[in-house]
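Quick one: structure for this chain?
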Amino acid sequence: MTRRTKKVGSTGRFGVRYGARLRKRIREIDSTVKTRHRCPRCRLVKVEQQSVGIWECRKCNYKYAGGAWQPQTNNGKRSIGQIRQIQERRFDD
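Got it. Here's what it folds into:
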């Protein structure tokens, strides 16, 4: 069998199926999921995905819910910022 993963990386498992554009998107998603991310508690780059939406730090064992492919999503950051602004307004009044 020939090597199929030199150019296509983790999407070599699909062969020629599903089209180049979809395989490219899957390769980008796989690379973001499988890399280690920064822990929001201890700030070390030790966070790995446990399952879809569940992330855990290998150092401090901090487990939290995040996005399906990234530990923090833009929508999550935005909603947290909005909640903080609302809380600050309550305390200012």
